[in-house]
Amino acid sequence: MDWSERLPVVWRALAIGPLWIDVHRDLELASERWVGYDEEDDACYCRYRFRVEGGVRDGMTGESNDGGYSEDLAAWRMRDGRWLIHRIIMCQRPAITSYGFYAFSERMPR
């Protein structure tokens, strides 16, 4: 896995790349989490993905989602200390609904 594959080219020079990446997998819960660390052992990259099978209730509309829900997030610490986050969310209702977006945060996603 390339830590920078989803990082927009315009931001690559401003992101801090990891020297090593710690990987956690939970096969029972269909989830994975990667945390990358810089030369001072501070987190500078993270990624997680998980999938929840059917029966999820939409918090906004209250509708049941019987097809499942998945999320894939990647985040990079910028040289100014902010985190650039790319999140992809997929809900499977009668049709597949998927969307992704970038955002900045003062903190690493948890």
Written overview of the protein:
The chain has a six-stranded antiparallel sheet, with no helix packed on it. Strands 4-5 form a two-stranded antiparallel sheet. The protein has one helix and eight strands, in the order αββββββββ. A hairpin with a 5-residue loop joins strand 2 and strand 3. Helix content is 4%, strand content 52%.
What is the average of the pLDDT values? 88
Poorly predicted runs of 5 or more residues: none
The count of β-strands is 8
Indicate the proportion of strand residues: over 45%
In what order do the strands lie side by side in the largest sheet? 1-2-3-6-7-8
C-alpha termini separation: 20 Å
Instruction: Please give the radius of gyration in angstroms.
Output: 16 Å
**Level of helix content?**
under 10%
Instruction: Kindly name the structural category.
Output: mainly beta
The domain tally reads 1
Describe the structure in brief.
Helices cover 4% and strands 52% of the residues. With 110 residues, it is mainly beta.
Can you give keywords for this protein?
two-stranded antiparallel ribbon, globular, mainly beta, 1 helix, six-stranded antiparallel sheet
Any chance you could write out the topology, listing elements then pairs?
Blueprint: H1 9-12, E1 20-26, E2 31-37, E3 43-52, E4 56-57, E5 64-65, E6 69-77, E7 83-92, E8 96-105
Antiparallel strand pairs: 1-2, 2-3, 3-6, 4-5, 6-7, 7-8
